[in-house]
Design a protein that fits this description.
Order of helices and strands: HEEE
Strand order of the largest sheet: 1-3-2
Low-confidence stretches: 24-72
Shape: elongated
Oligomer: single chain
């Protein structure tokens, strides 16, 4: 072997030995650092934290650990139903809150208090519509059911014997409801107010008198001669202009 090759080979072997020694030194030295960061686990908000561990050889390893998130506070139902506060922060206070539905918030129909908090007191509350406390007494001059109508003015007294009206006495308000004779709604039933077609009075209170009233169309006193040019039945219309002549042959087109 030539001297130059021998020297070169020896130099390479020496370098290889030095590299092996360097690797062994680096694997145990404290200058090597590894960092790992992981997201924190948890049910609420998360944050990352770093844990550091030092080996006996001087090396340092850094690892990530997650911190647990805090969960939301559970919403408690409204339990104080008469303190004026919205305890569960749902925008509804006391008996207006469905959580308070129950006997403590039921409407009492005769105590002058809005027990259920809906703005209506006693008989004005629809929950009292069928309460015995809200029935109309038709003879005590009071608005018992709170509908603005008193005694016989109230439709709740329609069938009451205390509110009978003498329908043929146009000048007497027998039941005190402000309406007299056939103008009273109590006289509308069962044809209680027929029109008498020859007495020059509005017997049924509809604003039409005698033959002007459609109820008298078939009355003999209200027959119209549809061709004589005379208002025979005195209803203000003549011949074919009279509604009683609508079907007369002389008035057909």
């Amino acid at each position: 072997m030539r001297p130059r090759l021998v020297v070169a080979f020896a130099t390479l072997m020496a370098l290889a030995a030095c590299m092996n020694d360097f690797d062994r030194f680096d694997s145990t030295s404290g200058d090597s650092t590894t960092t790992t960061t992981g997201p924190g686990g948890g049910g609420g908000s998360t944050s990352s934290s770093t844990a550091t561990t030092t080996s006996s050889g001087g090396g340092t390893a850094v690892g990530g650990g997650g911190s647990g998130g805090s969960g939301g506070s559970p919403v408690e139902p409204e339990t104080e139903c008469h303190d004026g506060d919205d305890n569960d922060d749902d925008g509804l206070t006391d008996c207006r809150d469905p959580d308070c539905a129950g006997p403590s918030c039921a409407e009492v129909c005769d105590d002058g208090v809005d027990n259920d908090g809906n703005g209506d007191v006693d008989c004005d509350d629809m929950l009292c519509a069928f309460s015995s406390a809200c029935e109309e007494d038709c003879t005590n001059d009071q608005d018992d059911d709170g509908d603005g109508l008193t005694d016989c003015e109230d439709f709740g007294c329609y069938d009451s014997g205390d509110c009978d009206e003498s329908c043929f006495n146009p000048n007497a308000d027998d039941n005190g409801n402000g309406l007299s004779g056939c103008a009273d709604f109590h006289c509308f039933e069962f044809g209680g107010c027929p029109e008498f077609c020859t007495n020059n009075q509005d017997d049924d209170g509809d604003g039409m008198t005698d033959c002007e009233d459609y109820r008298c169309w078939d009355h003999p006193a209200c027959e119209e001669d549809c061709t004589d040019g005379v208002d025979d039945n005195d209803n203000g219309t003549i011949d074919c202009q009279d509604f009683s002549c609508m079907e007369a042959d002389a008035c057909r087109p």
